[in-house]
Amino acid sequence: MNGTVVDLLAGNARHAEQFADRFDDVQDAQHPAAVTVCCSDSRVLQDRMWGNEQPGHLFTVGNIGNRVVQRGEGGEEVSDDVLYPIAHTGTGTAVVVGHTGCGAVTGTYQALADDRTEPDGIEHCLSLLAPHLEAGVAALPDGLDAAEAVNRLVEYNVDQQVASLVESERVPGAVDVVGTVYDFQDVYGGQRGEIHVVNVDGERRVDALRDDHPEIEDRIGRIWEY
C-alpha cells in the first residue's frame, strides 16, 4: 500500500480512539452552530483553526478560493453545499475564511492581469472568482509587489463572498455572516494561525466593527480599507 495512505490510516486510528465516545449525540442528526467556508489549501486547518474537537459543531465547506457561489440555471447563486446546513440543520452563522497567500486568488489575479490559462476544472473555479475580483484588481494601489497585491485581494474576495450571502434571497436575513482571514504569513501582526475578522454582515470599516463588537476588538483588523 502507498506509504502516505498507511500513515493516514494510522492517524485515523489515533483519531478513532480519541473520538469514539464523542458521537453519541450526533449519530442520527446534526445541528452545527456554524457553517465555515474555507479554502481547501493544505495549510488551512479547517477544524483545528477554531480549536474544534467536537463532532457536529461545525459544518465545514472547502474549495479553492473559499467560494460561496455556484452557477445555476438562472445564473450565479449561493452554493448548495453552503446553503444545506442553513436550510436543513438550523445553522444561523456563516463564516467565510480566506487566508494569506491564497493560490486561487493569486491565479485569478494573474489571469485578470495577463490572461493566464489553467486546466478546465481549475479554470472553472477561477472563473467564478474573477467577476468578484475584477473591480478589486482595478482598485489596487500603485507600487505593490505581487504578494502585497494578493493579500489585499484576499480581503476583497472575502468581502465579495460575504456580500453574496448577505444579498442572496436564498439565505435568511437572520443568518449572521462573518468574513475572516487566516494568517500564517505574518501579515496582520498577530500569531501565525490567528483568524482576523474583516467583515460582519457587509460592514468592513474597522472602526465601526470595533465599536459594534468590542468583545473581539483585538481580533478585528484589515490591511486594506478601500
Total number of beta strands: 7
Number of helices: 6
Q: What is the fold-level CATH name, i.e. the topology?
A: Beta-carbonic Anhydrase, Chain A
Biggest sheet, spatial arrangement of strands: 2-1-5-6-7
Radius of gyration: 18 Å
Global outline: globular
Oligomer: single chain
Helix content: 25-40%
- For this structure, what is the CATH class? Alpha Beta
Question: What structural class do helix, strand and pairing data support?
Answer: alpha/beta
The count of domains is 1
- Give the percentage of residues in beta strands: 15-25%
Q: Give the N-terminus to C-terminus distance in angstroms.
A: 52 Å
List SSEs in N-to-C order.
HEEEEHEHHHEEH
**At CATH's second level, what is the architecture?**
3-Layer(aba) Sandwich
Output the CATH homologous superfamily.
Carbonic anhydrase
* Biggest sheet layout: 5 strands, mixed
Write the layout of secondary structure elements.
Blueprint: H1 3-19, E1 34-39, E2 58-63, E3 69-72, E4 75-78, H2 80-88, E5 93-99, H3 103-114, H4 120-139, H5 146-167, E6 176-183, E7 194-200, H6 206-212
Parallel strand pairs: 1-2, 1-5, 5-6
Antiparallel strand pairs: 3-4, 6-7
Helix pairs in contact: 3-4, 4-5
Description:
This protein has 226 residues and is of the alpha/beta class. It has one domain: 3-Layer(aba) Sandwich (Beta-carbonic Anhydrase, Chain A). The chain contains 6 helices and 7 strands, in the order H-E-E-E-E-H-E-H-H-H-E-E-H. It has helices at residues 3-19, 80-88, 103-114, 120-139, 146-167, 206-212; strands at 34-39, 58-63, 69-72, 75-78, 93-99, 176-183, 194-200. The chain has a 5-stranded mixed beta sheet, covered by helices on one side. A two-stranded antiparallel sheet has the order 3-4. A hairpin with a 2-residue loop joins strand 3 (69-72) and strand 4. Helix 3 packs across helix 4 and helix 4 (120-139) crosses helix 5. The protein starts with a helix and ends in a 14-residue tail after the last helix. The model has no long low-confidence stretch (mean pLDDT 94). It holds the Pfam family Pro_CA. Its cofactor is Zn(2+). Belongs to the beta-class carbonic anhydrase family.
